């Protein structure tokens, strides 16, 4: 780790340094063990907890924190080892609901500082394992306008007619036209409360989006294709370029502001210095999978199993392909691995430009 530029984590708006630790992996759910001190705990242990209310009781102090049930196992640890270690280190008692039951983790202790320390340690532990969960939702700009779908299907047909002899080029690696979209950022929302929180934060973005878009839908054009590898003969992802018709940067600015807002809220992790907006049209993870998902999962290919395709002829013949124009008027909180009545991803929330 670069000591001058350490990795940082954001917990409820507070920043902690991420220390390098050795991770242990266990196959069974109960086989998760605390290897202490946990990430950033040496720094965090002495911090005071100002993001949660610590109540004084007849027996001392109490704090209740919201943790999704899927993360309980990481706080309990192998045979309860992690919880016992946390309780011993902080001189507190940590009460965790039964697995699968949504509720609050309640931390009690004789001293306020001890409860505060335990809360911080639990939050750092939860944040560490939350980052390892697959994303469940994403903010998206839908590109499934009928005109764009029509242009995409024409592109697909012509590519298969003219380039199907090229290595790895076949129908299943093309995106589902009903799910064409731009991904703004991904999130792991692990229970209904977190989904509601994300929806509320999306609504908070309404005013600045309307200011940027001047209260009108944003005219866009989808023209040209690019690839995401160094070698055009070994490509995994081919995407369509999307730009504002007036050549302004409004679309990029809206995306940046959305990511900034959700990162500040602790709901999203910034992956890039600049949001990379791209409309995926071909992805080798789609191979033998007709759902149009962009990432491996149960029954889907993993990155190591991907078979790249030769995109040289596609780029030569269709590099300036014109998919069409449309007016974008919506930002959606989309649910991964889902489909609504239109064929697009099911939306948990949305806001309009106008």
SSE map:
Elements: E1 8-11, E2 14-17, H1 41-44, E3 55-57, E4 60-66, H2 72-76, H3 81-90, E5 92-95, E6 104-109, H4 112-130, E7 137-142, H5 146-163, E8 181-187, H6 192-204, H7 206-213, E9 218-227, E10 237-244, H8 250-264, E11 279-283, H9 312-318, E12 322-328, E13 330-335, E14 347-352
Antiparallel strand pairs: 1-2, 3-4, 4-6, 5-6, 7-8, 7-13, 9-10, 9-12, 10-11, 13-14
Helix pairs in contact: 3-4, 7-8
How does this structure look, described?
It is a single chain. The chain is an alpha+beta fold and 354 residues long. The protein folds into 2 domains: 8-130, 2-Layer Sandwich (Ribosomal Protein S8, Chain: A, domain 1); 137-352, Cyclic phosphodiesterase (Cyclic Phosphodiesterase, Chain: A, Alpha-Beta Complex). Helices cover 28% and strands 23% of the residues. The chain contains 9 helices and 14 strands. The protein has helices at 41-44, 72-76, 81-90, 112-130, 146-163, 192-204, 206-213, 250-264, 312-318; strands spanning 8-11, 14-17, 55-57, 60-66, 92-95, 104-109, 137-142, 181-187, 218-227, 237-244, 279-283, 322-328, 330-335, 347-352. The strands form 4 sheets. The chain has a 4-stranded antiparallel β-sheet with strand order 3-4-6-5, covered by helices on one side. Helix 3 runs antiparallel to helix 4. 31% of the residues are buried. Residues 21-48 and 290-300 have low confidence and may be disordered.
